[in-house]
């Protein structure tokens, strides 16, 4: 550790990588200019003072240690050996830096949308994914972690692993608009939505969604509310659309399920982009659930930071805009009781997609 300034990765390897932007990005997932930009935003929060006994670890090195942990998913001991610091020091740095990243970036890159921002999101979904009045796609992702001590079966999920759940609302451009982190792995996606602040605001009508309006070219059908799209794990509500259940469906309902699944695919793609960039999601996270939650929140806001500040250098999108991606046919899904108004709204969308809102590529469904 005394030779950190000579042999530590930050003082040796990273200084060489700064001369090659591509290799630097593969190592920390940020280009050199974006790393410097992020450091300028969070540096004041993560800096520490020198003492009479030792020099403090610089803000740049602390940020590098945290980003390397998120990018690789390596253990604290492995990171500590690479950067020539103590394992407990790495744990403290990761905890402090992920908290600072979230606090410093959330207001700019993941603030709760206003009514005007929801309207813009809906326009992008209509333009890019042919689903009008859609304000986002909702889904949950199980983030695997080491079984917490004395937790019983709370974190044990149906996949046979221990996890916490990341519930996310994603816009048409793969950016996270709202996230809820920390749900127990044993809880269903629908249950996590109901218990989340977003789900309660959605149910109470407090999300400031745009006013109801008619579907494009179908004014005679009357105004409809703006909705979110989700899979069969979520309930059908007036502002939450899910697929029709069953295997054998009439053509109109098959078209609706296809159009809804095509719009909902953006949240699956966003999770794929997130886990391909931050390999912490590809391993079992061996930290306390509270720290795992902060790491997940930091990676989500960093995901938005990267996509909005460097769109040309961001991760390649899974589906180009306007392209039609073949989807596997939906299997049997569970039925779900819903109110009459929610059923009417879904039936209106179903009729619209097969009449006024039809598109050429859906004829072969």
Note down, in words, how this protein is organized.
With about 375 residues, the chain is an alpha/beta fold. It is built from 13 helices and five strands. A five-stranded mixed β-sheet has the order 3-2-1-4-5, sandwiched between helices. The termini are far apart. About 40% of the residues are buried. About 5% of the residues have low confidence.
Shape: elongated
Strand percentage: 5-15%
Taking the alpha carbons of the first and last residues, their distance comes to 63 Å
**Low-confidence sequence ranges:** 312-336
Look at the helices and sheets and give the structural class: alpha/beta
The main sheet comes to: 5 strands, mixed
Q: Helix coverage percent of residues?
A: 40-55%
Which features characterize this protein?
single chain; 365 residues; alpha/beta; five-stranded mixed sheet; 47% helix; elongated
Strand-helix topology:
Elements (H helix, E strand, L loop, with lengths): L3 H4 L5 H5 L3 H8 L3 H15 L12 H14 L3 H8 L3 H23 L5 H15 L4 E11 L18 E8 L5 E9 L4 H7 L1 H8 L22 E3 L10 E2 L9 H27 L11 H21 L30 H15 L11
Parallel strand pairs: 1-4, 4-5
Antiparallel strand pairs: 1-2, 2-3
Helix pairs in contact: 4-5, 4-7, 5-7, 6-7, 7-12, 9-10, 11-13
């Amino acid at each position: 550790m005394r030779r950190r300034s000579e042999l530590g990765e930050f003082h040796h390897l990273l200084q060489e990588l700064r001369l090659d932007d591509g290799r630097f990005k593969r190592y920390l997932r940020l280009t050199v200019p974006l790393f410097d930009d992020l450091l300028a935003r969070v540096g004041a929060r993560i800096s520490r003072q020198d003492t009479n006994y030792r020099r403090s670890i610089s803000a740049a090195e602390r940020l590098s240690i945290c980003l390397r942990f998120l990018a690789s998913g390596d253990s604290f001991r492995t990171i500590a050996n690479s950067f020539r610091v103590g394992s407990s020091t790495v744990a403290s740095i990761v905890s402090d830096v992920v908290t600072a990243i979230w606090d410093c970036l959330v207001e700019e890159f993941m603030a709760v949308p206003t009514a005007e921002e929801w309207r813009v999101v809906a326009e992008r979904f209509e333009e890019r994914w042919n689903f009008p009045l859609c304000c986002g796609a909702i889904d949950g992702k199980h983030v695997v972690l080491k079984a917490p001590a004395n937790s019983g079966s709370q974190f044990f999920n149906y996949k046979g692993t221990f996890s916490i759940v990341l519930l996310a609302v994603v816009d048409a451009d793969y950016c996270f608009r709202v996230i809820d982190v920390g749900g127990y792995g044993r809880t269903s996606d629908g249950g996590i939505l109901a218990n989340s602040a977003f789900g309660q605001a959605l149910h109470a009508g407090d999300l400031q969604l745009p006013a109801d309006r008619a579907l494009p070219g179908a004014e005679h059908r009357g105004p409809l509310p703006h909705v979110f799209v989700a899979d069969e794990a979520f309930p059908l509500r007036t502002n939450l659309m899910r697929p029709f259940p069953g295997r054998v469906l009439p053509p109109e309902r098959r078209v609706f399920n296809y159009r809804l699944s095509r719009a909902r695919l953006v949240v699956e793609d966003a999770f794929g982009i997130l886990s391909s960039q931050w390999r912490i999601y590809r391993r079992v996270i061996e930290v306390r659930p509270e720290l795992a939650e902060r790491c997940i929140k930091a990676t989500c806001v960093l995901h938005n930071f990267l996509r909005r500040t460097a769109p040309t250098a961001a991760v390649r999108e899974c589906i180009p805009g306007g392209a039609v991606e073949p989807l596997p046919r939906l299997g049997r899904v569970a039925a779900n009781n819903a109110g009459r108004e929610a059923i009417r709204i879904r039936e209106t969308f179903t009729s619209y997609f097969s009449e006024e809102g039809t598109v050429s590529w859906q004829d072969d469904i």
